[in-house]
Design brief:
about 210 residues; mainly alpha; Arc Repressor Mutant, subunit A; 3-stranded antiparallel beta sheet; 3 strands
């Protein structure tokens, strides 16, 4: 399984844990609520759903399509609704408990952060601290690279490098704030409890508005 398909499976299981959905609803939620999945298409989603059904983590149910008017010949079209099974819920909880290095990477971290409301505090802390450590390593490498190549870069390339560093620095500051909030146990200020946080999570997949891609 590729890392990208693994992230998609994680997100699908997480969304279906909230409520059963049909494919169109799932794709809409992936694209709008979890911005990191905007590049995913039906061509990616449906093979993923079939795989999860085959593994016993989802079941397919038929439901009438209320948006499609019935005709005398065809009747009302049925939709396939996907529902999380008990085994699927258990598997998703196992995935939520994972806090290893892959949970710190760019896309996987965004997906994990989107489901922090369902994640235990100790796992949230490990993921946040791991992500911060990963970005601090990235920032150190970027600074070292810039120091070596500064004299050979034109003004525009140099500005692009600086912009990337500033984006990573902003995310490190953001992570520091989240970690301090978690440590202080200020549950009323947790990410996702305020309107601004919800809007940011939905539009950016749980990431700060600007981030480095290096």
């Amino acid at each position: 399984m590729s890392k990208r398909s693994g992230i998609l499976e994680f997100a699908v299981l997480g969304l279906l844990r909230e409520s059963p959905m049909h494919g169109y609803e799932l794709r809409k939620r992936l694209n709008t609520s979890l911005g990191v999945f905007r590049a995913f298409s039906y061509g990616s989603l449906y093979p993923c759903l079939k795989t999860l059904v085959a593994q016993g983590w989802l079941i397919e149910e038929t439901a009438p399509d209320s948006d499609s008017p019935a005709t005398p010949l065809a009747g009302r079209r049925a939709k396939i609704v996907y529902r999380l099974t008990a085994a699927g819920k258990e598997h998703f909880e196992e995935l939520l408990a994972h806090s290893g290095p892959d949970a710190w990477e760019d896309e996987h971290f965004a997906a994990r952060f989107a489901f922090f409301g369902q994640t235990s505090k100790d796992v949230r802390m490990r993921v946040l601290e791991g992500r911060r450590s990963r970005l601090e390593e990235r920032l150190e490498k970027m600074r070292a690279s810039l120091a070596r190549t500064r004299e050979r870069l034109d003004d525009y390339t140099l500005e692009l490098q600086r912009h990337g560093m500033e984006s990573v620095e902003r995310e490190v500051r953001w992570l520091n704030e989240l970690i301090e909030t978690e440590r202080a146990g200020r549950t009323d200020n947790r990410p996702g409890t305020g309107r601004a946080d919800n809007d940011n999570n939905q539009e950016n997949g749980g990431r700060p508005e600007s981030r480095g891609t290096a």
